[in-house]
Design goal:
With 807 residues, the chain is of the alpha+beta class. It contains 22 helices and 14 strands.
């Protein structure tokens, strides 16, 4: 047996959840050889590159690690590459079987990374369709069965979706389909005529038979286990121990791989828990309700108040209602300018603040199981928009005459990994008047996207997987055998088997058949309330149980509204945390820009205009940093004012109600939310960001001072240079004027002397003296003008020196 196991693991025929390197190399080598031989069916270089990606687990990991992995690009690659690979592999000896088993191994490995089956199912359908076309040319029964086993994965996906939906009856039906398909493959393999001459094909047949037989036993165990658990939950089953022993024996006798073996152990352990509890008294909910709270925050890019944001969203929702449009795939019934609250919330403070807001009521959602005698479940849906910022999407389901496992099925609707019901519409269907829905978690995602689209300036803040469950019990019974006895005290609920779904934290997925039966309740805390009679308030991380069997319904609803308020706080604080992170990132980005700009300013030694431009840019950056700091401070102070109001007595109408509200907030971890926000603010503004801001501001001041000093120095140097230029010009002008004066004087006196000496035949003494006086006057006038110009130049220089001295 050990030797056979080693041979199978080393084979090119891959098994699920074991190393498949041998198969990958065999396929790659065979297809490469085809290309080297130039065969018509050989892959092109581009197709071989595509194949390298597809045969790598790294590619599958990458598409599921990224947001929105199941997009068009991966499916486009699958549609482009897989048909050619299937056609080429079909030309190799038993190549179709090797490829089918390898793809099954690869898809199983990728399946472990995601609950989303869409891309995986696309790969299977494309491959099997191409294999069907290849069989038309050349039939190979063994390869055909290999492709059928690959296609069997689609039924496995359906079983997982049924398990994630948390309903044993649809697990039974989906697993039964898988059992019939696996049994047909096992029978067809046995009916094949063995070909002892082809050792390679014989090995492939052995691996295929082992894989199909394991799948048959696996899903038969799941089906029979779901049937047994359902029978025990609905009544006593006398042969339960023997049936459970049979299932364990079959599993022990089958050589499952470690992953499948661990999954079956989980299923059988849960069934064993139900079996062991058959003799215990059980809880039965006669009247009650369950609320699912999905909190979210809304932040405006223009720092609008929550009142302004609510008004904007309400206006857009009213326009959608008038246009007959849906929200998240669910019709809008009405938009109310108020919250659906009782008068206990009519408190207000001296500033007029109160717990106010608006409500968007959506159409009913129906959950039904075609072919079953179950009553259609109705889910009422509303969106709460609060002026305080604690917004929430709320679903409400009534509980009436519900056994423990039916309560578990209802609560399971909220789990984040709830199965996609669009994969199993004939087994279970969720729909509104606008069409089919995948499940509540997917609907919440769609609603949040559409709420964000109502106001393009708004940003939705919601932590993935954040939700709360409020289970209210108004009447309950004790079930002992076939006898039901009404409970008179809510405290009895904690002693009855089947209360686990009411008070245990709801996990993110299904671990096994009826896994809720194994919940550990040791960590449950209870709290006392003033306004209910003989009540129980039990809370944990995301589920709150409120039970009061003797209080009027209106009093229970008041406390339920407190619980809704407490659960919605998570969305408000998530929005605040996101805003703090946004401001911190903005300031950090500005600080990085400032550091780069400061460095550039320090290194700039070019013209003054270039340095001035850098300083101007730095000044603008300083202004942006300061504005962002102020916006952050304003945001923090506004939220601190809201926190004070939330914790003040004036938010409700009486001090005793304030006591109960405090109890509910404490039970839901409100102090932890408040302290987390306060710590985030302190970390951003106090311990990390403020020193950086101070350093940058100091360096900016130094840069400004250095630039100012440099500008003053350059100004003085410039003015000194101008002064020197002026003095040089004045000296040149003085010399020129003196030269001109001398020339004029010499010319004047020389001319005068020559005229007097030469005389003129027609001149008399009078004309000579007049000429003499004119020449002397012209020389005197020239001297006066030159003297005036010289004195003006000296005065200008003295004024310049006095002005420079004052500066």
């Amino acid at each position: 047996m050990d030797r056979d196991d080693r041979l199978l693991k080393a084979s090119v025929f891959a098994s699920v959840d074991v190393d498949a390197d041998a198969a990958r190399r065999w396929i790659a080598d065979g297809l490469t050889a085809q290309a080297e031989r130039g065969e018509r069916s050989a892959l092109t270089p581009q197709q071989r590159d595509d194949l390298t990606q597809l045969l790598s687990g790294t590619w599958w990991e990458a598409i599921f690690e990224q947001e929105g992995a199941a997009n068009d690009e991966p499916r486009a690659l699958l549609a482009r590459a897989l048909p050619a690979v299937v056609r080429a592999a079909d030309r190799l000896p038993t190549g179709g079987l090797v490829l089918a088993l390898y793809l099954r191994n690869l898809v199983n490995s990728a399946w472990a990374l995601t609950w989303d089956h869409e891309t995986l199912a696309a790969a299977i359908r494309i491959s099997c369709a191409a294999a069907g076309e290849a069989r038309k040319r050349r039939a190979d029964p063994l390869c055909t069965l290999g492709w059928q086993l690959l296609e069997f994965l689609l039924l496995e996906f359906r079983v997982e979706s049924a398990l994630l939906a948390g309903r044993l009856d649809i697990v039974d039906r989906s697993a039964d389909d898988a059992v019939h398909a696996a049994r047909a493959i096992v029978g067809a393999i046995r009916d094949l005529e063995p070909d002892d001459s082809d050792e390679h094909a014989a090995r492939g047949r052995a691996v295929l038979a082992a894989e199909a037989s394991n799948e048959l036993v696996y899903y038969r165990t799941v089906r029979d286990g779901a049937r047994l658990a359902q029978r025990m939950l609905e009544g006593f089953v006398g042969d339960a121990d023997a049936e459970l022993a049979r299932l364990r024996s079959e599993v022990a006798a089958t050589p499952f791989n470690p992953v499948d073996a661990s999954e079956l152990r989980g299923h059988l352990t849960a069934i064993g828990t139900v079996c062991a509890a058959q003799d215990r008294d059980r809880v039965h909910i006669d009247e009650g309700r369950v609320r699912f709270i999905y909190p979210f925050g809304v932040r405006s890019r223009h720092h609008q108040t929550h009142i302004e944001i609510t008004e904007s969203l309400v206006l857009a929702a009213q326009q959608r209602l008038a246009g007959g449009e849906a929200l998240g795939g669910v019709p809008i019934v009405t938009v109310r300018q108020r919250l659906d609250l009782s008068d206990v919330w009519q408190g207000t403070d001296s500033f007029g603040r109160g717990y106010r807001g608006a409500t968007i009521e959506l159409g009913e959602i129906h959950v039904e199981q075609p072919g079953a005698r179950r009553t259609t479940q109705i889910i009422r849906t509303r969106i709460q928009l609060s002026h305080l910022g604690n917004n929430a999407i709320i679903f409400e389901v009534d509980l009436a005459d519900s056994a423990a496992h039916h309560v578990a099925e209802t609560v399971h609707l909220a789990t984040p990994s709830f199965g996609d019901l669009r994969e199993i519409p004939e087994l279970m269907r969720m729909h509104s008047d606008a069409g089919d829905l995948a499940g509540l978690p997917q609907l919440v995602d769609d609603l949040l996207d559409d709420i964000g689209a109502l106001d393009p300036e708004a940003t939705i803040a919601a932590r993935e997987g954040s939700f709360g469950v409020i289970a209210s019990v108004l009447a309950a019974s004790r079930v002992r055998g076939r006898t039901r006895t009404a409970l008179t005290s809510a405290g009895e609920l904690l002693d009855l088997w089947g209360n686990q779904p009411l008070i245990h934290p709801l996990p993110s997925g299904a671990a096994s058949i009826a896994d809720w039966t194994m919940y550990d309740l040791d960590g449950i805390h209870t709290w006392s309330l003033l306004h209910l009679n003989s009540e129980i308030l039990a809370s944990n991380s995301n589920v709150s149980l409120l039970a009061s069997l003797g209080s009027p319904d209106f009093a229970v609803q008041d406390i339920e509204s407190f619980l809704e308020f407490a659960h919605s706080m998570h969305g408000m604080y998530q929005g605040w945390q996101d805003a703090i992170r946004y401001f911190a990132e903005q300031i950090a980005h500005l600080l990085r820009d400032a550091e780069l700009l400061l460095t550039h300013t320090e290194l700039t030694s070019g013209p003054a205009e270039k340095r001035a431009a850098a300083i101007g840019e730095l000044n603008q950056l300083v202004n942006r940093v300061e504005r962002t700091e102020l916006a952050l401070q304003s945001f923090v102070q506004s939220n601190e004012a809201l926190m004070l109001f939330i914790e003040s007595p004036t938010i409700v109408t009486s001090p005793p109600l304030r006591v109960d509200l405090d109890t509910v907030l404490n039970s839901n971890g409100y102090p932890r939310l408040r302290d987390g926000f306060t710590r985030a603010v302190r970390d951003v503004l106090g311990t990390r960001l403020q020193p950086l801001l101070e350093v940058v501001h100091r360096r900016m001041e130094q840069a400004f001072a250095a630039e100012q000093a440099m500008q003053v120095r350059e100004q003085r140097e410039h003015e000194a240079a101008l002064e020197e230029l002026r003095e040089a010009r004045d000296r040149r002008n003085s010399r020129l004027l003196e030269l001109l004066g001398a020339v004029f004087a010499v010319v004047g006196f020389a001319g005068l002397a020559s005229v007097l000496q030469a005389g003129h035949p027609e001149w008399g003494p009078g004309e000579a003296w007049m000429l003499f006086i004119a020449v002397l006057g012209l020389a005197a006038l020239t001297g006066v003008v030159l003297a005036a110009l010289t004195r003006a130049g000296h005065r200008d220089r003295r004024r310049t020196r006095r002005r420079d001295g004052r500066e």
